[in-house]
Amino acid sequence: MVKVYEIDGVRPVVHPSAYVHPSAVLIGDVIVGPRCYIGPCASLRGDFGRLILEEGANLQDSCVMHGFPLEDTVVEVDGHIGHGAVLHGCRVGRNAMVGMNAVVMDKAVVGAESIVAAMSFVKAGMVIPPRSMVMGTPAKVVRALSDDDVAWKSFGTRQYHELAVRSLQTMREVDADTAVAPDRGRIAFDTSALHTPKS
């Protein structure tokens, strides 16, 4: 059962095709669009401003979304938010990625098809041009992204689209096995398009 909480008469909206892990918490003015994936222990606190995940966006394990009153925090279509990232009062553009444990602050804009490197700090008000690689603390644009970089990012996001479907269809709470079965299967995964973008 998804943990959703109403506050001040406003409750979260979750599209039926989205997957929200039962340990994630959604409070108040949160809108989760079609085909989104919300990972374990994510916290979406719509108790001040509105939080929006547009179609196909993913917000992975232990991510935090929050914002200021009367402001929207938005992850646009196919936005990809890595494990442990924090989004506060910002906008992540279409098909952009925020890496693991990165922080994106108020009124910052991550341009479409850009990548914010893991552990980066995007300061308040920064506007990142489309198709940029940014990294550091504070984050700086280090180069333009290639078509291969964008294809790599898009491949990863498609895996999360599929994970939302797999999770809706097959994830269930069970008791752990006590020993490894000799015929234990593995999760099937297509690695043909994997590469890591250069910094």
TrEMBL record:
Top-level division of the source organism's lineage: Bacteria
Any Pfam family hit: Hexapep
Transmembrane segments: none
Protein known as: Phenylacetic acid degradation protein
Organism from which the protein derives: Massilia aurea
